[in-house]
Amino acid sequence: MDPKQVVRAFVDAHNAHDIDRMMDLLTEDSVMIDVAAPIPLNSKQDVRKLFEMIFASIDIHFEITGVIAEGDKVFAALRTTGVGIGVWAGRDITGFKCDVFEGMFCEVRGGRLSRTMFYSDTVTLSKQLGGYAPAIDMKAGVKNVM
Fold it and tell me: 101-138 pLDDT, tens per residue?
């Protein structure tokens, strides 16, 4: 797969809530940064845990609204929509709706994502999902402030 196809496959797996397929599309040393995550993402296992939490609490969907690729780097513009179906960051968000725009910048190596950075409207997303606070970045030692 070319890099754009890898990103599209990751988004398709996300929309199917297929965590195993998502993990297959990450390199073993993959790095993921997501400013909206309620937990630190210091390993591939942390990424799995994050998506398990997301899919257990939100019926969520990414719509790719644009893609730009250059070599092994891909930027996908996303519209993220969803409806709460459980507990998120300690709050019952059943029935809460989210609708935000995000960006996903990826580096692809050997047909897998080696580095992924999500950029989100964290203020709007947090308000829509009951006012949760993003995680502390354990590597930088800095709290993501909204």
Answer: 999 999 999 999 999 999 988 888 888 888 776 654 44
pTM, rounded to two decimals: 0.87
Answer whether 103's CB lies under 8 Å from 77's CB: yes
Domains belonging to the chain, first-starting first, are 3-132 (3.10.450.50)
The dihedral of CA 101, 14, 136, 134: what is its sign?
Answer: positive
- For the chain, residues with pLDDT lower than 50 are 136-146
- Whole-angstrom distance, CA of residue 142 vs CA of residue 65: 31
Listed residue (2, 19, 144, 10) closest to 76, CA to CA: 10
Q: Given the structure tokens 């719509």, which residue do they identify?
A: 63
